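Mods, move this if it's the wrong board.
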Amino acid sequence: MAAATARQIPVVNNVITDEDFENLRTEGKHSGKLLPVSVLKTHKLLTDKHSKQLVDRHVRAIHRLTKYFCHGFLMKDVDLVCDMITVCRERLETNLQYEKPLCDLIKICGKPFLKERTSDDSTNADAIINLLTELGHTMKVNNITVQLQLGESLIRFYTEQSPESKDLKSLEQVEDLSVRLEIMKVLQCYSNSALNCDDMLSVSAAGLLCSGINIPDPSDRLVFRTVEILWNLLEFGSKQEVANQLSCKDCVSALRDAFVRQIKEGYSHADKQLRNDLLVIASLVVSLCPTSPFMETGFTKLIVLLATFTEVKSHHELVRNLKLYQTHEDFELKKLLMSILVLLSADSASFQIFSEGRVLLSLFSFVRANDNSSTIEWSPAQFEELQLQDYMTCQSNTRLLMLLEWCVGQADYGGHGNSFHGSGGRGNKRAQMRYCLRLIRSMVSVGDDGLNQDLVDQGAINQIVGILLNASTSPDENDTIDVEMQCDMLFIVASLCEGDTHRKELFGAPGVQVLVEYLKRDPNKINSPLGHHQLLLSGVDCVWSAVLGCYITEQLFLENDGVFHLMDLLEICPPTMQNLVLGCLVDLCENAKALAHVQSWRGEKQISAGKLLVELWKKEESNMGVTRDKTGKITDLKRPLIGTVQERQGVIPLPADRPSQAIVDVSENMRAKIYSMFCKLGFNAIPGLSTLDYVTVAVIEKYLDFKMLEVWHEIKVELEQENIRPVSPDTDSMMEITRILNDRASGVAAAQNQLLQAQRNQELIEEEEYYESIKENHRQEEKVFKDFCDYVDRTSDYTVLTAAKRKQLSAIDTSRLQERVFTSELAHDTLQEDLNATTFCGRRVEIESTPLELTRAIVDTTAVEEDKKTLVVA
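Not the wrong board. Structure tokens:
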């Protein structure tokens, strides 16, 4: 007990001195001077073997002691008081004179204990706990006066101080109703503590209390206190433990009988609340312990009767004169009965009782439009709440589709939205539509062909597609409920169209338009807390189920750029969604026209589809922990595809009907789908890929061979672990297959090395060309510098200029043809003589001078100065 108490027990209300204690003794009715009384001497008198027979002295001594300590015992005397209570309790069985002393001691124990020192509370904590435990054992005494006094003291002690645990086993031995009620009152006070509830549950308090709930009590206080204690145990204790204790046949029968008695005899407001509380406790037992014997005890049949008698007339004597009104308590009873029907339906054995009680017929009475003009037993708000709660339990096609049509119609109706299931339905019909769609979704999920065909025959596909078309093109923002309803509608259409070409044709152009509208929505909404990622996933699933496999819908999807929208979604969606989108694309690429769309697609940074798939492959292997070097080459030829998780799990022998880890890996990641896409796109001449990308493509191309190598390795290891040696031909075949696959892995590694070597050679060639261009640039710069130096020399040194002139003339003469000149001919010189310039002169002369901007600025400054001088002269 002390170990279970997490904090110190504040059982002292103040610290007093001897003078204060003397004043306490002389206050009020004890104004007369009292002689000091020693607890030790009284204890010795009571326990000494020589004074054992002095009963009268014992009675007088305890009377003086309790009169002297009328405000409470000192903490240091708690052990002695506990011994005296034990002695009096034991002697009471043979001598009734100890009844009053025992009651007096118990009465004083109900008051706060007093301390002389500050440390008394921690020093005597164990002693106080032992005293309270002893008081609990005293409850077993077969004496009504003692039991009543004990209950009163414990209540007073609890209401003035912090709670302490108490033993409950004595409750089984109490037969007197007044004593039992007093004990129940004590337990009700003590059950407000989590520690006390745990201690009570440890001795099966819930089952003990429930089994005695039907003890005759004219005041009904016993049922009320039992329910209150059970509620406290459920609130502060373990709900599962309470349910386990109440799930026995005796407790369920007791709950049933108490509930029936409240149904028959309860007419007041409090009685109806108590009736509902009993049903709530029963529903908690069913929800936490589905195997509870409700059917064996007849409780299930009783609940079915009460849940259906207002809609399905019955001549049962229990409901013959029973009527539910539009009061809050009766309305809560109706809702609780519906809720517990849902819980009881988890047991297939109860279906027969449901059928006999015509539960579905009763529930179908609520599956209709809310027509306020009709005569109903519930108010419009109550009928709406019952209707919404009913949608989760009943099934229908015609009624539900008619109700769905009413929900989207233009009829004026304002929902009250004042229930849990009516969230978001204030002033509209969204709440009804929400649960109507949820029920249809549950129906199509069953997979019953007849049920689905009936929905299709009644036009469910066209009706839902029309609603989706309005929702997808609406400019209004969607909230959580809107997104949920649209997801449900997409799921319904996908389930109805899956595997049936005719239904996909019914889906048609409007359905394809709806899907395209969802796929091209703002990608930034994927991470929205409203659940737009669910809407996108539902759209992709609907494409997979309602578009693929039908030539007409596939053609419409391609014409509306559906492939481009899927590729855009694949590029931006989170990794958790990419697997589904890629799987849809793989199946869609079975159509050759779709493959052309994939090849012409370009992403955000103008990346091609092949580049995107290679990046997805690299990310997938990085997440799996597959060993690759920095260039993407294979590092482990024997296990080229295995990641760290698969390697850590190792090979475990499994039955033949269970897939191994190598097979499970195919469906757990996207590598198999990426391989399938490359099989359609090709492994060579893919636009937008670099050499490093082709290194990865080399691994992708041999994915199937590597997976076969992995499977054969698992087979070999499993045989070794199971100590099975194959016959020689099988061993040779296995070794040959393994060798061939290992050679292919080596071939891939060699091809990767060749690609990288070719890349390095190409880089060297490009590097040399780059350096040559740099050298050429430097040669041109050197020539320009040399020409400038010559120019400076010619313009600064006349001898250099003349030498350059002679050299130029010599070069000119050398370059001319040496023709013979006849004597009769006159040869004219084309060069001007005595011209000291190395440039060829012509009629056009280029003059390099100071830039015009600089000269203009100087001219402007001079003009300003002249103007100033003119002003001064004037």
